[in-house]
Automatic annotation (TrEMBL):
Pfam family, one: Aconitase
Enzyme Commission no: 4.2.1.33
Cofactor: [4Fe-4S] cluster
GO MF annotation, one: metal ion binding
Source organism of the structure: Sphingopyxis lindanitolerans
Entry's family note: Belongs to the aconitase/IPM isomerase family. LeuC type 1 subfamily.
Matches recorded under CDD domains: IPMI
Gene for this chain: leuC
Pathway: Amino-acid biosynthesis; L-leucine biosynthesis; L-leucine from 3-methyl-2-oxobutanoate: step 2/4
Record lineage: Bacteria, Pseudomonadati, Pseudomonadota, Alphaproteobacteria, Sphingomonadales
Residues that bind [4Fe-4S] cluster: C353, C413, C416
Protein name per the record: 3-isopropylmalate dehydratase large subunit
Cofactor note: Binds 1 [4Fe-4S] cluster per subunit.
Length: 472
């Protein structure tokens, strides 16, 4: 049932996919179902046990990313030492073969992190509904697609029916006017917004990012921004499709070609929110107020600018916030009032579905070219896909990184999450370009500071948390 009157981008996506209503819930048609090895084995097992088939196998794509080691991938799943990881990787190969789903297995050059590969292959397109058993599915909203994470039982439901039950969220718009300063990137904007909105401040909402500073972002930047929407509690993040979106998609594998491209463009141009559309919540910020950001705590809203000092829990408004901050500081081994810049690091991790695309790696290479990683730091760069890796190698980025002392790895989630051999040791402090700094996430007792690739690169060189401007 189309909503009456002017509609937002979200309303339009919703209306175009609603196939039935029941008791306040809507059954939405799913255009693209992305799968990975961790949240799909039970779904396939359930499907097989019920004697069901996959309704539209051509609308699914499977990737192996969380469990894969980032060295020696050519050996395939059989070469994975951890038995549980190996079983999940092998199950994905078997299940996709059995049900006729396209799969880029471990070691396939087209493979990599699901949220990097979908867009790269041209599978993620404006106007679509996209789901995956993974919270950071919000990334694909950068294309003007309604993209959100689902649970394993829902993965089974989508496999069987190509639909998903949903309750409609409220519309929220974040307008970012003006221009980001030099060395300030989409990641800084996302962390800045997290600091303002909080980790559950956007619960029950779908956020549309708008304004001149968002329009000026590349597709890579928009993906980084939408990726972190889930950390604010939002159901999804969205950017209206425009010339930047179309230029990124034109000629990409699965993107429409010829007359279908012209028809798609005409359709996609109708998607942006109507001028009179109403958003239940609006937030406006000036891009010039966004500093290079760093997290100091154990959730991604606990952030400060690179020139800032660690906050004093005693100054926080509620008992809960004071307790959370005190606990975070104890875990992170940081003191109130301490400057964040200069905090000594053991490790640097550049990668993850937040920041492992070619543009991210170019930024890193530009900063570290001709410099050396500090001797006490172990730094690694993990491209988001095999194709990002190849593109970087064709540009000589790998050579620049290796010469600076970085480890250059094969694609995967890697040290974003401790599900593969790339982990922090207890007590190690790491600058990371990923999206979650939860306790023990990068390895038991590991301490994570979230930041942009630019800051992570500068920090690797300086040996402690550093502003790239300090190297200029
Ligand atoms: C393993 C997976 C279910 C999880 C997610 O949903 O986000 C992971 O990708 C993460 O980033 O924590
Ligand atoms: S890179 Fe990290 S955040 Fe992204 S899907 Fe993998 S584990 Fe999740």
């Amino acid at each position: 049932m189309p909503s009456p009157g002017p509609r937002t981008l979200y309303d339009k996506l919703w209306d175009a996919h609603a196939v039935a209503e029941d008791d306040g819930e809507t059954l939405l048609y799913v255009d693209l179902h992305l799968l990975h090895e961790v949240t799909s084995p039970q779904a396939f097992a359930g499907l097989a046990a019920a004697g069901r088939t996959v309704r539209r196998p051509e609308r699914a794509l499977a990737l192996s990313d969380h469990n894969v080691p980032t060295m020696g991938q050519a050996a395939g799943p059989a070469g994975v030492a951890d038995a549980a990881a190996r079983a999940q990787l092998e199950a994905l190969v078997d299940n996709t073969r059995r049900f006729g789903i396209e799969n880029f297995p471990m070691g396939d050059p087209r493979g990599g992190i699901v949220h990097v590969v979908g867009p790269e292959q041209g599978r993620s397109q404006p106007g679509m509904t996209i789901v995956c058993g993974d919270s950071h599915t919000s990334t694909h909203g950068a294309f003007g697609a309604l993209a959100f994470g689902i649970g394993t039982s829902e993965v089974e439901h989508v496999l069987a029916t190509q639909t998903i039950r949903q309750r409609k969220s409220r519309n929220m718009r974040i307008c970012v006017e003006g221009r980001l300063a030099p060395h300030v990137h989409a990641k800084d904007l996302a962390l800045h917004l997290l600091g303002l909105v909080g980790v559950d401040g956007a619960t029950g909402h779908v956020i549309e990012y708008a304004g001149a500073a968002v329009r000026a972002l590349s597709m890579e930047g928009r993906m980084t921004l939408c990726n972190l929407s889930i950390e604010m509690g939002a159901r999804a993040g969205l950017v209206a499709p425009d010339a930047t979106t179309f230029a990124y998609l034109e000629g990409r594998g699965a993107a429409p070609g010829g007359e279908a491209w012209t028809a798609a463009l005409a359709r996609w141009r109708t998607l942006p929110s109507d001028a009179e559309a109403v958003f239940e919540r609006e937030l406006r910020i000036d891009a010039a107020d966004v500093a290079p950001m760093v997290s100091w705590g154990t959730n991604p809203s606990q952030v400060i600018g690179i020139d800032g000092r660690i906050p004093d829990p005693a100054g926080l408004p509620s008992a809960d916030a004071r307790d959370a901050a005190a606990r975070a500081l104890a875990y992170m081994a940081l003191l109130p009032g301490q400057k964040i810049a200069g905090t000594r690091l053991d490790r640097v991790f550049i990668g993850s579905c937040t920041n492992s695309r070619i543009e991210d790696l170019r930024i890193v290479a530009d900063i570290v070219r001709g410099r050396r990683v500090a001797p006490h730091v172990r730094a690694m760069v993990v491209p988001g896909s095999g194709l990002v890796k190849r593109a970087a190698e064709a540009e000589g980025i790998d050579a620049v990184l290796r010469a600076a002392g970085f480890d250059w790895r094969e694609p995967g989630c890697s040290m974003c999450v401790g599900m593969n051999p790339d982990r922090l040791h207890p007590g190690e402090r790491c600058a990371a370009t990923s999206n979650r700094n939860f306790e023990n996430r990068q390895g038991r007792g590991g301490r994570t500071h979230l930041m942009s690739p630019a800051l992570a690169a500068a920090s690797a060189i300086a040996g402690g948390i550093a502003d790239p401007a300090s190297l200029d």
